[in-house]
Structure to design on (225 residues):
C-alpha cells in the first residue's frame, strides 16, 4: 500500500487570521487592564453608586 | 455518519435561520444601546435598556445556542466534520467565544435594565454601562459576520486530523 501524501501545512489565511486574532486579544487585555476592569455591582448601581447616592448630587 | 439529504436540508435551514436571526437581533440590540447612550429623553433611555434586557434574554441567548447546536449538527452530520477543515473550526471557535462573552455580559445587561427602572435615573452610571454595551454589541456583530463569510467562501485548508482521516 502506498504511503499517504505528506500534510501540505497550515494555509496562509489561517496563519494571518491567527496572528490578527492574537494581536486583537492582546489589545483587549491591555485595554481592560488600562481601564481598571469592569466595576459592576449587581446589587447596587452599575458604576458602584446607589440610587440614593446619585439622587443627592 | 452523514445525514439523509432531506434531514441535511432541514438542519441547514435551521442553522441559517438561527445564525442570520442572531445577527439581526444583535443589530437591533446595538441600535437600542446607541439610543440608550445618546438620547436625552429619560423615557427613551429607560425603554431602551428594558427592551435590551428582554431581547438579550429571550432572543439573543436563544438564537446563540440554536446557532451553536444546529452548527454542530450540520458539521458532524455532513462530510465537512467538526475538526477536519479550518473554516469549520474557525466558525465554531468564534461562535463559542461570542456565546461565552454574551453569557458573561448578561449580568451587566440585567443591571442596566434594573437601574433604568429605578425612580431616579442616574445618567452617569447608565452611561458607563451603555458605553460597554455599545462596544460589546458592535464587537459581537463584527465577530459574527466572520462565520457568515466563512460559510459562503469556505476557504480551503484541512487540519492535520482531517488530512489523516481523508487519506486513511
Amino acid at each position: 500500500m502506498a504511503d499517504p501524501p505528506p500534510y501540505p501545512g497550515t494555509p496562509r489565511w489561517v496563519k494571518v487570521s491567527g496572528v490578527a486574532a492574537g494581536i486583537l486579544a492582546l489589545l483587549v487585555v491591555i485595554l481592560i487592564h488600562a481601564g481598571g476592569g469592569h466595576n459592576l455591582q449587581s446589587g447596587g448601581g452599575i458604576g458602584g453608586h446607589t440610587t440614593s447616592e446619585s439622587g443627592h448630587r | 455518519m452523514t445525514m439523509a439529504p432531506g434531514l441535511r436540508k432541514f438542519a441547514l435551514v435551521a442553522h441559517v435561520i438561527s445564525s442570520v436571526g442572531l445577527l439581526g437581533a444583535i443589530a437591533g440590540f446595538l441600535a437600542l444601546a446607541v439610543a440608550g447612550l445618546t438620547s436625552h429623553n429619560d423615557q427613551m433611555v429607560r425603554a431602551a435598556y428594558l427592551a435590551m434586557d428582554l431581547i438579550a434574554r429571550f432572543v439573543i441567548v436563544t438564537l446563540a445556542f440554536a446557532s451553536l447546536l444546529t452548527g454542530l449538527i450540520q458539521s458532524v452530520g455532513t462530510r465537512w466534520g467538526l475538526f477536519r477543515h479550518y473554516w469549520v473550526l474557525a466558525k465554531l471557535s468564534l461562535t463559542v467565544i461570542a456565546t461565552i462573552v454574551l453569557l458573561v455580559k448578561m449580568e451587566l445587561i440585567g443591571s442596566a435594565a434594573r437601574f433604568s427602572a429605578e425612580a431616579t435615573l442616574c445618567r452617569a452610571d447608565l452611561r458607563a454601562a451603555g458605553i460597554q454595551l455599545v462596544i460589546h454589541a458592535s464587537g459581537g456583530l463584527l465577530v459574527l459576520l466572520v462565520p457568515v463569510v466563512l460559510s459562503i467562501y469556505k476557504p480551503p485548508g484541512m487540519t492535520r486530523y482531517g488530512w489523516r482521516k481523508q487519506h486513511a
Notes: The helical segments of chain A are 12-34, 51-55. DSSP finds two helices and no strands in chain A. Residues 40-57 of chain A have pLDDT under 50 and may be disordered.
